[in-house]
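Chapter summary example.
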Amino acid sequence: MELYDYFKFAAALVFVLCLMGGLSYILKRFNLGQGSMISPADKRLKIVEVLPLDARRKAMLIQRDDTEHLVIFNASGETVIETNIKAPAATKKKGKNEE
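The structure predicted for these 99 residues follows.
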């Protein structure tokens, strides 16, 4: 193989990777990869916080409307620890200069 053939191969590889990245960006941008067309402002369910407990378990705080639920996920399933936790009111976080 000549140097020109290696250059053609590298250029084709970069081109295909750019096409894949562009398609991925478009799917994420227009929310087409998840199967639902709900706008982010209309979504009622979100993950507030995830805390890894160990290699196999993690605690997750899930919010639906104004109610939060604490769930532990592990390899064998999930366990609901606490439900109907009232979401705290939005508080202003202190910056580095506001201490």
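To summarize the output: Residues 12 and 78 are 45 Å apart (CA to CA).
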